[in-house]
């Protein structure tokens, strides 16, 4: 027999303690022992995220992704683009999350029947079949408490009674016959700042990555257009398949028939030529002295270029050097924790008050006799700024065609820290 | 007979001998789901009578509901029992002619299943694949190409007739199908088209060689050179090749990383060098994704960045490393940074590397040190700086850091040992403290190799080593013997006894390699009467000048694997990998891809037809039937491939909507475009009428270079200017034009395409630019030198000039191996801008900002030929590189652009009045540009 080429042969789900708790085979059964190669790699890796995504074994290839502390290990027999499998596995996780609210071992075990039903529909003979959440939801209803109870009593399943039409419609991402009493469309413009700030406070690199997440609950087949005041800010974009590409190219307008419910309309990158505003600054003084078992630790945070908005939900974390035994610090606001095992310091600051800047001061004790650490820790900062898109992106208007009613429309802006690092 | 009952329960589980099947409760999920509603069928299926079961299957295959038919086929094809093969074959054939595209898609999915069950069926299955490849619905395309790839990937001939259709459908195919189709088309294109970089490949290799040159590569080049030279002639891209590049480009915007990667590899393997750059941005975007995606993308970027360094240079900072990155990502980023390092950015990169060395992640620190070593070997200017930095690391507290530094320093010193005897001395001192075997071995090797530079220290080190010999690791022992031998040869007086002592110790070592080495060396260096002729040459053997090691990227030459593939990632051929073919020497016949027109128009008629014949498999019988009326109304579309393509897209999806009764989604925006295209097409109509066959060749290349320019470029061909007359240039004629393409290496430069033609009887060599004399602020990016231009040949290159938004000429000398010519390029004002895309509202808003001094109004009388809007648009866009702005009024034409260098907006409005009068308005912040532009447009319109 030929080396039957199919894309994804089997899938194993492995939890954090290294147990296989679910397996699914799309064709013949591959023995669990194939996962031994994965476990070997897992052992070799110092950190959970350092397991190589592609592991060759004598007869198979294992491609895995790690999400929510679960490894999704796909077994491949022959050449296939690795990203194809990786992207698919992430899509599986997204679907589970969509169905069960969370994607945890417990949730998967609780909904094991639905999980198998989903996997069966998502792949046919190893090739992706229905991965669009709207179509899946028509085929297999997401579990609700009521339905679970009814199913237990009547012995029925979550499999839809209606035949799905989605796959056959011209807009495969939207089911037909959607009805709502309150028609509403909400758009969240969320921007994340990725930055590396050097010791002296100057920006080494800073970029803005944004997304527009939508929650659209509209009756019928609405056709929406969303335009921006300043579309040229968007340097690089990627779209949900519903967006008409040609229209964007010609007019810089987003025109689309939305999927029903939550979806990501657009991700974008703001051109790096524009100077990125950095909303917070950090003053730091972290020093260890040779021969002394004490080190000095001082951090002060302050707002900077925030366009008059408050910086909230600030969380500072830092991996202190291995030689640090304990930290004895006092925050001017918020709380801090230091884990002596992982050496992770985290300080939950809350809101930054420009009049009274939050600070964290004190000393860290070092292992006696140990030499002074070579390196100073990097500081990671998380924050949120409501009602602000830091790039200055503004939605101009949202129009609906194709349906008669007047929908309720809402747009929200938010700026967050992405990978925001300060080197000290 | 008894095999079948178990077959149903085993449908997903394979043979019954595998007990673990029970772990899979939902196997047959579809089965239970769809047949719950058809209890009678289910009963028949569950019954143990075989014939009854097959009967049931047959019935299902004929069910009026398409979803039932599809599911039935899915179940049937999952039965892995050979007895069922004929029935499966029958069902697949039936389904392949089903009227529902969904069922046909399922048929395509069933093909690989049957093929793996019974490879004997291959020929019949290929027939089905051939039939399904002709399908025009997006739903089927991805699945059938997947079947093609699994069953008969070498039957490239099946693709010819469907090539253009696949290109045109691509954007509407579901994302997984897109990946499969793009990968297949990459291979196809490699067999059918010519290498677009054929003229540049030589130059490119020469210029890139500075970095990763290896001897054998050079040799290959030498062999290849005469061959390529002989063949070199002006390269013209096959329009089908262009079609593929154009239609895949929008998919770089896909949300699916696999699709983006597929397009990126297609561009890398197929696009002209100047165009490959566009993929960099999309790949960099993927780096924001999950870490597994990052890992795969970085592997591919690492390979690409060796071949096309310039592409990723603008994104250097995106590869900077964060302390929170997983180690495997850090190491890959480091690899990319090292590949991107050159003379201009090395100082920034080294500064960045310095912070990495302080990281807590020691594996990463080791990799950073190696990276510094590679930068130092590749870029001579920084070698000393790097060496000094590394020497400082020798006093680092972490032993691993020191060890790694020693290894790297050893490699660097080998390049120029004489200047660095103090470093060698410093390293000799380290031997007392450093314990890492590899580092100790490296130090010993260094001292031995350069013992003449440290004549006093070397014997002392040997003395210490002789003391500790028995406790050393094997690699260290070998190096001790080595050191002893070298010292014996150069300084036998001091080291004779020590050497003998060491050799005696080695003689009784447990490791036979060491015993062996000791025996060998003793024979070689200690002359006895028995020792052969070889010992005379001992000194030459041991102290021969050794070539410095080349520190090269592990990703070098990985691009012989198709990028994005599993094999590329593993750097080993995986089962089922299809080699990426080499470009053909000469292009195969392009006419094989020509398709008769009725094929295109048939789609649009299908909607009417399906109402009449629902049950019939309409694919087979509608083939020859398309009536003359249908082709008549599609006539106007037939002129251009792209227009007919979008036409078929829409009608294609329309035909899928049979059951749901959906109307085709109304795309107003496409209508607009369509209209534009139609207008343009009228010009070509005369040509189009001549041929019934879609022939892309009739189109000017420049018009189809990109999705945008297609609608923007004036239909007249681009004007050529003379740079050097044939007589003045002594047989060398040079012409140039403004290609209106973005100049990818520097976006604020104007791309100037230059064509050299050698009219002499001999070769012209070393064509290049020298001594540019430019106004202050102006910059010029020269084309890479053309080595040889054979007699009678011509070649086209692209250079970039930043005119600083002025019409000042760029003066420079054009040099050949014998002569220099003074030439100058002066741009018309209209070429100093690029199209800008504005909406009507934006246009008005921007216009409002540019009033007063920035607005120039001029009345004019339109020329005789400016009868309609179309001609006006054409004249204006021919004069200036502007794009049309949509406009509600038919009395007004609006255009927008921005200047290439500084990005100032240029807005042009032409308002026509009754009786041939018109008013021209230009709004531009740069008044000089505005004034000149008004003059040019006035002239163009009043002709």
Automatic annotation (TrEMBL), chain A:
Q: Where in the cell is it found?
A: Golgi apparatus; Cytoplasmic vesicle membrane
Q: Which UniProt keywords apply?
A: Cytoplasmic vesicle, Golgi apparatus, Membrane, Protein transport, Transport
User: Is Secreted among the key words of this record?
Assistant: no
Q: Does the keyword Transport apply?
A: yes
Q: Name one Pfam family in it.
A: Clat_adaptor_s
Domain MHD stretches: 182-423
Q: Which InterPro entries match?
A: Adaptor_comp_med_subunit (IPR050431), AP2_Mu_C_sf (IPR036168), AP_mu_sigma_su (IPR022775), Clathrin_mu (IPR001392), Clathrin_mu_CS (IPR018240), Longin-like_dom_sf (IPR011012), MHD (IPR028565)
List, alphabetically, the PROSITE patterns matched.
CLAT_ADAPTOR_M_1, CLAT_ADAPTOR_M_2, MHD
Q: Which GO terms describe its cellular component?
A: clathrin adaptor complex; cytoplasmic vesicle membrane; Golgi apparatus
Which domain of life does the UniProt lineage start with? Eukaryota
Membrane protein topology class = Peripheral membrane protein
Q: Which GO terms describe its biological process?
A: intracellular protein transport; vesicle-mediated transport
For this chain, the family text in UniProt reads: Belongs to the adaptor complexes medium subunit family.
Provide the protein name.
AP-3 complex subunit mu-2
Automatic annotation (TrEMBL), chain B:
Q: How does it sit in the membrane?
A: Peripheral membrane protein
Q: Which UniProt keywords apply?
A: Cytoplasmic vesicle, Golgi apparatus, Membrane, Phosphoprotein, Protein transport, Transport
SUPFAM superfamilies xrefs:
ARM repeat
Q: Which residues form the AP-3 complex subunit beta C-terminal domain?
A: 679-808
Q: Which residue spans adopt a coiled-coil conformation according to this UniProt entry?
A: none
**Pfam families under this entry?**
Adaptin_N, AP3B1_C, AP3B1_C_2
Q: What's the chief localization of this chain? A: membrane
Tagged with keyword Acyltransferase = no
Q: Where is the composition biased (Basic and acidic residues)?
A: 605-618
Is-annotated flag, keyword RNA-binding? no
User: Where is the protein situated, by its record's location annotation?
Assistant: Cytoplasmic vesicle, Clathrin-coated vesicle membrane; Golgi apparatus
What are the boundaries of the region Disordered? 1-33, 602-684
Instruction: Please name the GO terms of the biological process aspect recorded for this protein, alphabetically.
Output: intracellular protein transport; vesicle-mediated transport
Q: One Gene Ontology cellular component annotation?
A: AP-3 adaptor complex
Comp. bias intervals (Low complexity): 637-655
Q: From start to end residue, where is composition biased (Acidic residues)?
A: 656-675
Q: Which family does it belong to?
A: Belongs to the adaptor complexes large subunit family.
Biological role stated in the UniProt entry: Subunit of non-clathrin- and clathrin-associated adaptor protein complex 3 (AP-3) that plays a role in protein sorting in the late-Golgi/trans-Golgi network (TGN) and/or endosomes. The AP complexes mediate both the recruitment of clathrin to membranes and the recognition of sorting signals within the cytosolic tails of transmembrane cargo molecules. AP-3 appears to be involved in the sorting of a subset of transmembrane proteins targeted to lysosomes and lysosome-related organelles.
Q: What is this protein called?
A: AP-3 complex subunit beta
Lineage summary:
Eukaryota, Metazoa, Chordata, Craniata, Vertebrata
């Amino acid at each position: 027999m030929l080396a039957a080429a199919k894309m994804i042969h089997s899938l194993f789900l492995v939890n954090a303690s290294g147990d296989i708790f679910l397996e699914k085979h799309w064709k013949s059964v591959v023995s669990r022992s194939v996962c031994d190669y994965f476990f070997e790699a897992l052992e070799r890796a110092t950190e959970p995220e350092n397991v190589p995504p592609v592991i060759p074994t004598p007869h198979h290839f294992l491609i895995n992704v790690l999400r929510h502390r679960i490894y999704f290990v796909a077994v491949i027999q022959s050449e296939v683009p690795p990203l194809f499998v990786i992207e698919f596995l992430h899509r599986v996780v997204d679907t589970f999350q969509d169905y069960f609210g969370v994607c945890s071992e417990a949730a998967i075990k609780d909904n094991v029947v639905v999980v198998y039903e989903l996997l069966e529909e998502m792949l046919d003979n190893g090739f992706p079949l229905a991965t669009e959440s709207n179509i899946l939801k028509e085929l297999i209803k997401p579990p609700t408490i009521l339905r679970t109870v009814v199913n237990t009593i009547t012995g029925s399943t979550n499999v839809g009674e209606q035949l799905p039409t989605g796959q056959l419609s011209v807009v495969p991402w939207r089911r037909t016959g959607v009805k709502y009493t309150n028609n509403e469309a909400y758009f969240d413009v969320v921007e994340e700042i990725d930055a590396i700030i050097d010791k002296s406070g100057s920006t080494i690199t800073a970029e803005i990555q944004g997304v527009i997440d939508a929650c659209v609950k509209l009756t019928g087949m609405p056709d929406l257009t969303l335009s921006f005041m300043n579309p040229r800010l968007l340097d690089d974009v990627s779209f949900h398949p519903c967006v008409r590409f040609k229209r964007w190219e010609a007019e810089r307008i987003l025109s689309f028939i939305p999927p029903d419910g939550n979806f990501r309309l657009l991700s974008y990158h703001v051109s790096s030529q524009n100077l990125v505003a950095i909303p917070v600054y950090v003053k730091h003084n972290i020093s260890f002295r040779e021969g002394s078992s004490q080190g000095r630790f001082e951090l002060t945070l302050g707002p900077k270029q925030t366009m008059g908005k408050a910086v909230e939900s600030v969380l500072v974390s830092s991996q202190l050097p291995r030689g640090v035994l304990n930290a004895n610090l006092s925050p001017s606001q918020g709380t801090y924790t230091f884990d002596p095992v992982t050496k992770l310091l985290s300080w939950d600051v809350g809101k930054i008050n420009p009049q009274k800047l939050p600070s964290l001061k004190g000393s860290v004790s070092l292992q006696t006799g140990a030499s002074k650490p070579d390196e100073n820790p990097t500081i990671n900062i998380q924050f949120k700024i409501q009602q602000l898109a830091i790039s200055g992106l503004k939605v101009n208007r949202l129009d609906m065609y194709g349906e008669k009613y007047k929908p309720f429309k809402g747009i929200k802006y938010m700026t967050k820290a992405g990978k925001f690092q300060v080197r000290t | 007979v008894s095999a079948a009952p178990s077959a149903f329960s085993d449908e997903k589980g394979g043979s019954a001998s595998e007990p673990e099947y029970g772990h899979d409760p939902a196997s047959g999920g579809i089965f239970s789901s769809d047949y719950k509603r058809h209890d009678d069928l289910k009963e028949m299926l569950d019954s143990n009578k075989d014939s009854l079961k097959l009967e049931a299957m047959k019935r299902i295959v004929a069910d009026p509901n398409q979803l039932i038919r599809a599911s039935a086929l899915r179940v049937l094809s999952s039965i892995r029992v050979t007895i069922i093969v004929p029935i499966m074959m029958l069902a697949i054939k039936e389904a392949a002619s089903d009227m529902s595209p969904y069922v046909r898609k399922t048929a395509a999915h069933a093909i690989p299943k049957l093929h793996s069950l019974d490879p004997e069926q291959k020929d019949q299955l290929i027939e089905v694949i051939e039939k399904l490849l002709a399908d025009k619905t997006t739903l089927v395309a991805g699945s059938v190409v997947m079947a093609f790839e699994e069953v008969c990937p070498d039957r490239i001939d099946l693709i010819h007739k469907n090539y253009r259709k696949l290109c045109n459908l691509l954007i509407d195919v579901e994302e997984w199908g897109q990946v499969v189709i793009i990968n297949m088309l990459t291979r196809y294109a490699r067999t059918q088209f010519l290498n677009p970089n054929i003229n540049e490949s030589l130059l490119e290799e020469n210029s890139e060689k500075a970095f990763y040159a290896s001897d054998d590569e050079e040799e290959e080049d030498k062999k290849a050179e005469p061959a390529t030279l002989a063949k070199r002639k002006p390269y013209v891209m096959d329009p089908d090749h262009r079609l593929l590049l154009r239609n895949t480009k929008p998919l770089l915007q896909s949300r699916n990383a696999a699709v983006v990667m597929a397009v990126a590899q297609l561009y890398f393997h197929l696009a002209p060098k100047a165009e490959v750059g566009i993929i960099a941005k999309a790949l960099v975007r993927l780096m924001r994704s999950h870490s597994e995606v990052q890992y795969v993308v970085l592997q591919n970027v690492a390979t690409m960045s060796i071949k096309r360094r310039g592409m990723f240079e603008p994104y250097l900072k995106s590869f900077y490393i964060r302390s929170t990155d997983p180690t495997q990502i850090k190491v890959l980023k480091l690899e990319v940074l090292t590949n991107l390092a050159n003379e201009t950015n090395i100082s920034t990169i080294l500064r960045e590397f310095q912070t990495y060395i302080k990281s807590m992640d020691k594996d990463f620190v080791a990799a950073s040190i190696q990276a510094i070593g590679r930068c130092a070997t590749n870029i001579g200017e920084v070698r000393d700086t790097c060496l000094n930095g590394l020497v400082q690391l020798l006093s680092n507290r972490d032993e691993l850091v020191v060890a790694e530094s020693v290894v790297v320093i050893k490699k660097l010193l080998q390049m120029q040992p004489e200047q660095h005897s103090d470093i060698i001395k410093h390293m000799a001192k380290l031997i007392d403290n450093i314990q890492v075997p590899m580092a100790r071995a490296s130090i010993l090797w260094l001292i031995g190799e350069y013992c003449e530079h440290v004549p006093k220290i070397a014997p002392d080190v040997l003395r210490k080593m002789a003391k500790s010999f028995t406790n050393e690791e094997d690699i260290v022992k070998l190096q001790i013997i080595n050191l002893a031998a070298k010292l014996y040869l150069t300084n036998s007086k001091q080291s004779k006894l020590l050497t003998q002592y060491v050799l005696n110790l080695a003689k009784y070592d447990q490791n036979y390699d060491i015993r062996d080495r000791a025996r060998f060396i003793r024979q070689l260096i200690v002359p006895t009467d028995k020792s052969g002729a070889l010992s005379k040459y001992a000194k030459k053997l041991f102290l021969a000048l050794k070539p410095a090691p080349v520190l090269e990227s592990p990703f070098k030459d990985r691009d012989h694997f198709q990028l994005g593939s599993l094999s590329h990632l593993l750097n080993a051929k995986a089962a089922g990998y299809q080699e990426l073919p080499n470009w053909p020497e000469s292009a195969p016949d392009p006419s094989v891809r020509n398709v008769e027109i009725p094929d295109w128009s048939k789609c649009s008629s299908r909607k009417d037809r399906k109402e009449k014949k629902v049950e019939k498999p309409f694919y087979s019988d509608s083939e020859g039937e398309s009536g003359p009326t249908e082709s008549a109304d599609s006539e106007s579309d037939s002129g251009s491939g792209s227009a007919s393509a979008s036409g078929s897209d829409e009608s294609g999806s329309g035909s899928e909507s049979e059951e749901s009764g959906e109307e085709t989604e109304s795309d107003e925006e496409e209508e607009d475009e369509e209209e534009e295209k139609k207008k343009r097409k009228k010009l070509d109509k005369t040509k189009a009428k001549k041929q019934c066959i879609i022939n892309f060749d009739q189109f000017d290349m420049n018009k189809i270079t990109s999705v945008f320019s297609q609608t923007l470029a004036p239909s007249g061909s681009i004007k050529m200017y003379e740079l050097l007359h044939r007589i003045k240039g002594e047989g060398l004629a040079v012409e140039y034009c403004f290609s209106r393409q973005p100049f990818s290496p520097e976006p604020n430069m104007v791309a100037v395409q230059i064509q050299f033609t050698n009219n002499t009887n001999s070769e012209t060599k070393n064509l290049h630019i020298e001594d540019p004399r430019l106004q202050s602020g102006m910059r010029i990016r020269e084309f890479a030198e053309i080595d040889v231009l054979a007699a009678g040949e011509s070649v086209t290159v692209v250079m970039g000039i930043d005119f600083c938004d002025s019409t000042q000429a760029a003066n420079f000398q054009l040099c050949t191996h014998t002569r220099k010519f003074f030439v100058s390029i002066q741009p018309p004002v209209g070429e100093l801008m690029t199209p800008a895309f504005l909406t009507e509202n934006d246009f008005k808003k921007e216009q409002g900002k540019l009033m007063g001094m920035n607005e120039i109004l001029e009345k004019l009388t339109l020329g005789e030929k400016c009868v309609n809007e179309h001609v006006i648009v054409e004249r204006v866009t021919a004069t200036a590189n502007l794009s049309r702005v949509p406009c509600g009024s038919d009395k007004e034409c609006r255009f927008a652009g921005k200047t290439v260098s500084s990005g100032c907006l240029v807005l042009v409005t032409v308002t026509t009045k009754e009786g041939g009068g018109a008013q021209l308005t230009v709004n531009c912040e740069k008044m000089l540009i505005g004034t000149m532009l008004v003059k040019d447009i006035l002239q163009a319109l009043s002709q």
